[in-house]
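Lab channel / #folding
Pinned by the channel admin:
"Please post every new chain as: sequence first, then the structure tokens as a reply. Keep commentary short and put observations after the output so the thread stays searchable."

First post following the new format, from NK:
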Amino acid sequence: MVPIIEINCLSFTYPDGTQALREINLIVEAGEKIALVGPNGAGKSTLILHLNGILDSSGQVRIAGLQVEKENLKTIRSSVGLVFQNPDDQLFSPTIYEDVAYGPTYLGLDKATIQQRVEQALHEVGMSGYVHRNPYHLSGGEKKRAAIATVLSMQPSILVFDEPSAGLDPRARRELMELLARLPQTIVIATHDLDLALRLTGRTIVMDNGMIAADGPTSSILGNADLLLEHGLR
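Reply from TO:
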């Protein structure tokens, strides 16, 4: 079986000279739920931005065997749904319907299919009654779920989250975790929330200084106090 994510010798340096990734090699199999943890500046966000071609650099990234490169980006971006830390980065239309319909419209789907996808995505995140709501009038937890719906409407095989629980109150955080636990896709979560990682993921990758410092079962990684302390994690 071809891995759903395959990364070989991936390095990336920002224009200011900061090297964010150093020779990353990573294999993710279909259906895995993975946490990326590490201190600020470890390279987690930079890594996930390579999965759908937002960033590009030396090395190879393949999604289900397809190279992430310019001519494949439309296909890649329909396969890899990226949910940003701040939902306001994804919610920009007057209504929730228009935001969730944006991706399917970009794919050139017909109106009936777009409507069906919007309704299905909103149902999956528990927001079927929010079609005509303005996203700026939603709570933080509602905005987060609406942002997830915008990528679910693309019917991706991979979901990638950047700090999904950041800024949520306890109830919204619990609802988010219940939602993520239900989703069947391959999931990659960049997070500082180690409890979320423990509850939702079977595999955890520790990143530090642009490199993979450890990779293993979540219970083993998060149960290693010395490892966590060494890499700035509690």
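NK: The longest strand covers residues 19-28.
TO: also worth noting, Residues 40 and 208 are 9 Å apart (CA to CA).
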